[in-house]
Specification:
Strand content: 5-15%
CATH architecture: 3-Layer(aba) Sandwich
Number of strands: 6
Number of helices: 9
Helix content: 40-55%
Largest sheet: 6 strands, parallel
CATH class: Alpha Beta
Order of helices and strands: HEHHEHEHEHHEEHH
CATH superfamily: Decaprenyl diphosphate synthase-like
Strand order of the largest sheet: 3-4-2-1-5-6
């Protein structure tokens, strides 16, 4: 059934170009099974592989995953340490497979807080896959939507101070060109697992007109079937971007 639905989705020409996922519920998944929270994060890695595989097979251009938020530093120190270790291990193990599958890896966020060793691993992984032309996989690490907008404004303010542009040149378009996802298609669909109905400071600017889907499924249980069902629902949504249904229909007929 999954292969049939994949074929139908690809034929529909209504797939999102850019999907984002808030992968929530790892810790709760582990606790419900009487395991340490880190075991949930490890189990979630398999779901990341599956989401990447499905997105790549369908021809989705970009997939952005919320791996570690700027607020996650507030978690217990041992969990943060284990998350950093897991991030390093996954990068080491997965980058060659991503490269073989023509996936371009990009880590977005303020990576300056990571260890030198991890920063070097990130740079090496990005460099290895930089010329790939398939799915763009963005891993948001130490990322926050407010930080993203702030750093874009700081870049623009520096240009004003240097006389390269005037304050009146700062526009929505200018900010758009300086956020972390500037070179990517507009965000079409954001999915959050784990049951919470909020976006938790993720891609605030980018989510302005994206479709939002909140799933009660904990991330380690979020599989291909549910992802495909969400994409099928997206294909049936009329996206108006402030226009009326009549205007949308007229534009499609032009």
């Amino acid at each position: 059934m999954s292969d049939q639905l994949k074929t139908q989705l690809m034929a529909s020409n209504k797939l999102p170009r850019h999907v984002a996922m808030i992968m929530d519920g790892n810790g709760r998944w582990a606790q419900r099974q009487g395991k340490r929270r880190v075991m949930g994060h490890k189990a979630g890695v398999d779901r990341v592989r599956e989401a990447v595989k499905v997105s790549r097979e369908l021809g989705i251009e970009s997939l952005t995953l919320f791996a570690f938020s700027s607020e996650n530093w507030q978690r217990p120190a041992d969990e943060v340490s284990l998350l950093m270790e897991l991030f390093f291990t996954v990068l080491s193990r997965e980058v060659s497979k991503l490269h073989r599958n023509n996936v371009k890896l990009k880590v977005i966020g303020d990576t300056s807080r990571f260890s030198d060793k991890l920063q070097q691993k990130i740079a090496k992984a990005e460099d290895k896959t930089k010329d790939n032309s398939g799915l763009i996989l963005n891993v948001a690490a130490n990322y926050g939507g407010r930080w993203d907008i702030t750093q874009a404004c700081q870049q623009l303010a520096a240009k004003v101070a240097a006389g390269e542009m005037s304050a009146t040149d700062i526009s929505e378009e200018a900010i758009e060109q300086h956020i972390c996802t500037a070179q990517l298609p507009a965000l079409d669909l954001m999915i959050r697992t784990g049951g919470d109905c909020r976006i938790s400071n993720f891609l605030l600017w980018q989510a302005a007109y994206s479709e939002l889907h909140f799933s009660a499924t904990l991330w380690p249980d979020f599989g291909e079937t549910e992802y495909l069902d969400i994409l099928a629902n997206f294909a049936n949504v009329e996206r108006r971007f402030g226009c009326t249904s009549e205007q949308v229909s007229a534009s499609l007929q032009e």
